[in-house]
Every structure is written in structure tokens, then in C-alpha cells.
Write a structure and sequence with these properties.
This protein is an alpha/beta fold and about 450 residues long. The chain has two domains: about 160 residues, Anaerobic Ribonucleotide-triphosphate Reductase Large Chain (Alpha-Beta Barrel), CATH 3.20.70.20; about 200 residues, Alpha-Beta Barrel (Anaerobic Ribonucleotide-triphosphate Reductase Large Chain), CATH 3.20.70.20. Helices cover about 45% and strands about 20% of the residues. The strands form two sheets. Strands 1, 2, 3, 4, 5, 6, 7, 8, 9, 10 and 13 form an eleven-stranded mixed beta sheet that branches. The radius of gyration is 21 Å and the shape is globular. The mean pLDDT is about 90.
Length: about 450
Amino acid sequence: MFEDHEIISTIEMVKNENLDVRAVTLGVNLFDCISHDLSVFKKNIRKKILGHASELVETCDAVGEKYGIQVVNKRISISPIALVGACFSADQMVEIAHELNDIAKTVNIDFIGGFSALVEKGMAKGDIALIEALPRALAETQRVCASVNVATTKAGINMDAVYEMSKAIKKAAEMTKDDDGLACAKLCVFSNIPQDMPFMAGAYLGVGVADAVINVGVSGPGVVKRAIERNLSEQRLTLGKVAEIIKRTACKVTRVGELIGREVADNLGIKFGIVDLSLAPTPTVGDSIGEIFQALGLSHIGVPGSTAALAMLNDAVKKGGAFASSHVGGMSGAFIPVSEDLNIANAAHKGYLTVEKLEAMTCVCSVGLDMVPVPGDITVETLAGMMADEMAIGMINAKTTATRIIPVPGKKAGDKVHFGGLLGEAMIMDVPHHDLTDQFVTFGGRIPAPIHSLKN
């Protein structure tokens, strides 16, 4: 139950602080749709998804209107296509992507995620076909998102997959060069990918999840910033007290997300899954992770002290969410996507936030090198090295990390790139030595799992 002061506080968050339910994601299991006949498979997945999702948008809008809280994005995640479509060729995988794109249009959702593969320990036939299909699948569709998990703490890093993904990303960028490599904004490469994530582009439905499930992603960077600012005048305000403020704010935001998610799930007759309380920014002023850093007394995100501030923020968000709900999942922390956050993009443009500092900060946040535009002539080897470094951070620290790096064809560091909508805009970041062709990433094989993976 909510107390009166909590209700009043939450109303204020909605009215003035950009609080919304960022995403309601319907997960649909496709394993019972498997067929060796492509036309039958496509027919099966269409019937299954439409059977669950035909009223998703209408229901989200109705519940949002009832509580006066906007559900911004309605999405679908599905079982990894590399598994349920393992018998198909790369060309057939592209056909499946087109079918998924058409299904997404039919139910009027913005993205469908799950054009995915799990290859941390090796690549099977279906995985190889999907990775080969990725450039065309993402370039030729608008609403299909993809993710490939190449590392886990238990398995180590599949360096063959890292190198293949680097080549796929370069090819996808080139195929969408007229849109500044936009296809790459729909592709995440993961270490320790969660099975229940509602946020794109990485969302997919894990193999151990229910047949259909509703997952909710709530975001509130503007709410957290305002909560900190309201208390700045307090005497003897310590960082411990700031962490407590963030924790309490995250608790309120999580309650809102679970309220909306459970009602949507009940109305659709589908199981409720998790609330992902990730501070995911937008390009809107006042809805920025970077502005939280400024509220904490740092001139820009990226200056000394930024990693410590992010560690505190990330931890406080998780603690608040865990107190509010027994079903917190997904990422649940702080995202620092460069182009999607106007303040972060500005810090990168002015040189306060570099690729090296960004990588350091990913050691303590919930994601990795996210929405980072880089020069179009970056070599496959350098790109693979960047991904391998990020995967290592996730593997060693037993946490989720990811890369969503966008090589922008024909452009160099300092040039501006505009992706539009929630994807935002930014200056292309300088990658030192981006033209190297070092041999390390071409050795292939698997970097072994760390010793602390032997927990059993």
C-alpha cells in the first residue's frame, strides 16, 4: 500500500520530472513453433506472437491513461532465432527477420528483439547462419533488434565469435551508410546477457522463462536528479545521505513500474515477470544521466570522480529496486549511452568523456560501450579488440556488459552523426590507434573463464 505522501511525491514525479514507464515488453516463447519448413515456421511464429500481442498496445495505453503514467514503448522479445530457427540458412534467416518486422508493424510495436544467438562456448550451425544474416537482416528491417552473447563468467570469451561480430558490424554499417550506420544501433554484443531484459536492443526471451511473460522497464534519471537537488541545501549532506536519497527514489519508481506491469499482465492474461529499474536516458533535456553527475557536483560526466559517482548511483538504484519488489531483473542500474543522452554526448564532444574513461566507467555500471559512434574506417581488428576488452570486464567481474558500437561510414572523429528519435545524436568519438590490425584478436579460440567461476 502507498501512503499519502508517497502518492503525492509520485504525482510530482510524473508531472514535472519526466517519470514514465519506459518500456513494457511482452516475451513470447517460440520453441513450439519450430519447423524445418520455412513457410510453416513463419506461419507458426506469426500465429503465436499475434495470439499474445494483438491487444498489447491498446492495453498498455489504457492502463497508462488510468494511472496518468505514460507507457512510452511497447515491445516484444522472443526466443533466440538462432535456436528456434537453427535449421535455416543465412538467406532464410533474413526472410525470418522480414517476417518479424512485418509482425511488429501489424501489432504496432516499436521494436521486436530476439534475432539473437548465445555463442559464449562455441557457434553451432544456427548461430553461424544468424551472424552471417545480421547485416542484411538489420539493414533491411526497421523494427528488428539483435543481440549476440559471446562471453560469460562461467564459459570465458569466445574470441572467434567476437571477431565474426566485428566483421558483421562493419558490414551492417556499410549497408546503412546513407543513415550513418544505423543498423548497428539495433545490435548489442553481450557478456553475461540477462534472460529477462525489457530494454532494446538487447532484449530476448531466455530459454528458462515462461511461455509468455510481461517485463517492465522503468526509467527516471530526471526524478533522481531532482531528488538530489531538493536536498542540496541540507546542512551536512554527505554522500552516504545522497545514496540514501537515490535509494528511496528508486524504490518509488520501481513501485510505479510494478503497478503498471502487473495490471497490463493481468489484463492480457499473461504472467508478470520482472521490473528492470534502469536509469535509461533520452535526448530530452531534464531526462539525463549526465545531469545527475552535475547535481552531484561534477562539472561533466567523465571528469575525475565520475567512476566513483557512477558506482554509488548504480548501487543505490539496485538497493532501492530490490526493496520495492521481489521481482527485479534485467539490467537494473544506470545506462550511459553516448548518443541517447544529450548531456553525455556534449561531454564527449568537449573531450571530458573519452573512450578510455567510458570503458573504465563500465566497470561499475549496468551496461558497456553503449551507442558509441566511432570513425567509419576503424579496422575490424580494433573494433574486435574494443569488444573483447568490454567482454573481459563483464567476465571477470561477473556482471553484464555489452557493446553497441557504430562505425559511421565516411566520417571521422569530431564529425556529427544524427540517428533520430530516442537514439539521439553525438559527435563521433576518437578511438586512438583505430587503424591497427593487431594479431591478438585473430588467434581465435576461447579465453578461459576466470578461477572464481568455479563456484559450485
